[in-house]
Amino acid sequence: MEGIMHHLILKKSVLHIFAVLVAIVLFYPVQTPAEETIKNLKNKVEKASKFLSKNGQSGISEFMGQDNQWKAEPYIFVYDLSGTIIGHPVKPKLVGRNLMGLKDIKGNMFAAEFVRIAKEKGSGWSEYWWPKPGEKKASLKASYIMRVPGQNMLVGAGVYDVSKNDAIAMAGK
Asked: What proportion of the chain, given as a percentage, has pLDDT over 70?
C-alpha cells in the first residue's frame, strides 16, 4: 500500500511540473530575434538623442569615428531639421548633403518625412528604400526617427527588410 501511495504522489508531482511548464510555454511572452532587434534599435536611437541633447553640435564628432558605438548595426544617422545629414558613420561622404528633395526608388521623399516626423510628432517610424551597407541595390528599410530635445536635429536608425507596420507592431507601439 505504501508503494502505491508513493507512486501516486510521484505521479501527481510530475503532473504539476508538466502543467507549470505548459503554462510557461503558452503564456510567457517570447521575443523573436526581429522583435529584439527593433527594441534595441529604438533604445539606441533614444540613447543617441539623449547624448546629443546633452552635448549638442560638439557631440556630432562622436558619430563619425571609425570605432564608435553609433557605427555598429543598427547605425545611427543624424540630420538637421532642414534635411541635411550632419552625422553618418557608415557613409561619411553624405555629411553636408541636403536630402529633402531626394526620392527613393518608390518615390518616397524620406528625408522630408524624417523632418516631418521630428517636427510634428517628436518620434516615429518611416518606411523607405535604401541600400544596405556595402550594396548598391536599394532594400526596404524601416527607421525610427527621434527629434533631439533642445537641438535643431534628429537622429534615426533603421532595420532592413522590415516594413514600417511590422516595426511598429514589434516595437509594441
From this structure: 79
- Three-state SS for 129? strand
89: preceding bond cis by omega (within 30 degrees): no
For the ranges 19-23, 43-47, 136-140, 142-146, the lowest mean pLDDT is seen at 19-23
- Phi-psi label, residue 82: left if phi above 0, alpha if psi -120 to 50, beta otherwise: alpha
Q: What are phi and psi of 133, to 5 degrees?
A: -55, 130
pTM over 0.85: no
Dihedral of CA 7/11/13/17: which sign? positive
DSSP string, 48-113: HHHHHHHHGGGGGGGGTSSS-TTTSSSPPEEEETTSBEEE-SS-GGGTT-B-TT---TTS--HHHH
Q: Is 122 helix (H, G, I), strand (E, B) or coil?
A: coil
Phi and psi torsions of 100, nearest 5°:
-55, -40
* 169 to 24, 49, 78, 153, 162: CA distances (angstroms): 23, 22, 25, 26, 11
CA distance to 93, 107, 163, per residue, from 58 (Å): 19, 34, 34
Q: What is the pLDDT of residues 60-93, one digit of tens each?
A: 888 776 677 888 888 999 999 999 999 998 888 9
What cell does 146 get? 527621434
